Every structure is written in structure tokens, then in C-alpha cells.
Amino acid sequence: MKLTPKKLNSFTLFKLPSAFLCGVRAKELNSERCVVTVKHRWINQNPFKSMFWAVQGMAAEFATGAIVTDKIRQSNKRISMLVTSNNAIFTKKAVGRITFICNDGLLVDDALAKAIETGEGQTIWMKSIGKNKEGIVVSTFNFEWSIKLRAS
Predict the structure, then answer these.
(1) Are the C-beta atoms of residues 60 and 142 closer than 8 Å to each other?
(2) Residue 2: what pLDDT?
(3) Could you tell me the pTM of the whole model?
(4) Chain centre distance of CA 138
């Protein structure tokens, strides 16, 4: 079964309700990238009338995690995944619709191949860049994902 943006958005409704309520939505998912958007609204703002950093983080992490999840499903192997570290840089006030894009699908392919071949856990640093409607970067998030084969 192919993982689609619609299925990802249904997943957030039932398994990540805070992300769903804050407006985090998948727009595109393919073998190389994932696009996730979130719109600044009353429910996800900070006292400075911009988007709360944690909401940006949810959208950014979702863009990276959706790729990892999709690749694991395609491998037909029992593989666990976990964020082990992250960092972020905020460069502009986040207002309006913010679009997070992760283009690290090929990195995931390499790490999964190594994990399956060696049986050892692997880590991948994935980047998700958030831009406003003018195309200006408002934040950049990096997530370190750990993947490893589960015991059969």
C-alpha cells in the first residue's frame, strides 16, 4: 500500500492530534522529498503573534519522518525509527503559510541499505527548511534519525 499525503494527514488526526489541530498537513511525498505546510493561526501562535517554534518543529519533523516511514514500509523489513537529536535555526518571524521541505530521501535509502546489509543501527541527519509564501527561509530544522532492524 502506497503512503500518500492523504493517508499521512489521516494518521495525524488519529495518532498526532496536536499536529492536526495546529494545521500541520502533508502536501507531497515521493522517493526524494516531502512537503508539509502549516498556517499561522490563533491556535498555534506565540505571544509575539508569530508561529510557536514547537509547531514549526512538528511540521519540520513530519517532513523528515514521513520519508523515513515510507522507505521503511517499502523495504518490507521490521525496522524501528527514532529521533535521537535535533537542532533548529530561526531566521524570520513565521507568519502566514509556512512550507517545510525535506529533500533527503536518497540519504534514507543509503542508511536503510546499510542497516539491512550489516544488521547494525544507522543514523541519518535530515534537514527540513521552512519558507514563507515569499520563499524566504523562516527556520531550518535538523533531525538525527536512528534506524535499526528489529529482532524477528
Answers:
(1) no
(2) 84
(3) 0.95
(4) 16
Q: What's the CA gap between 150 and 152, in Å, rounded?
A: 6
Q: Check: CATH 3.40.50.300 for 5-149?
A: no
pLDDT tops 90 at residue 40? yes
In the numeric block, the cell 511525498 is attached to 29
7 three-state secondary structure = helix
Q: What angle do CA 74, 79, 84 make, to 5 degrees?
A: 115
Query: DSSP for 12-61?
Result: HHHH-HHHHHHT-EEEEE-SS-EEEEEE--GGGB-TTSSB-HHHHHHHHH
For residue 79, which phi and psi values (nearest 5 degrees)? -130, 130
Set of cell numbers at residue 86: 535535533
Please report which confidence band the pLDDT of residue 151 belongs to, taking 50, 70 and 90 as the band edges. confident
